[in-house]
Amino acid sequence: MSPAAPSNQKARTILQAARKVFLEHGFSAATTDMIQQQAGVSKSTVYAHYPTKEKLFIAVVEAECESFLSGMQRIEFQPNGVEALLHQLANTYLDIVLSPVALAQYRVLVGEAPKFPELAHRFYQAGPRAMIRQATELLSRAAEAGELDFGGLSAETAATAFANLVRSELQQHYLLHPEARPSRAQIEQWAETCVFIFLRAFAAKR
Question: Is 107 exposed, middle or buried (0-12, 13-18, 19+ CB in 10 A)?
């Protein structure tokens, strides 16, 4: 089992408590006392599993990213199905980045990045870059099947462009309007627009 998913029940309890405290208060304002009280364990138990607040925050971030990306990892390329693949990628990614937890986590990480750049870097690698790696693999298969043509660009560049296009407007809007929630229809309409634009750029000419 990965470090992001501890097998010990007390470690999982601490991680769940830390997740709640960090998302409510941010990293700087959160204290070990808050986390210990939320978890219902002693401070020594917290430190036995997570020696520093930074290590605990990293564990929370990586566990959340692992949970979010599990849906992406189940997506597979099917021959003659690149449009359906892109729709699935776009909708799944939007469901991730627009979830209340992901938006709250993103706000915390952006706010803390100047003080704790390593924390932000770990999130970037475990979240956005992991999604792009998964999309790169899938889009490479579509290109190998002759369904996409990147025109000399790499599959990674195309995947990065797609990911940025997908999350751009809606993520920006809901990061700055925390009281609002997107509808299913809104998400699907934006996904449709992103797929249309991407295919206009990279669909292979038949």
Answer: middle
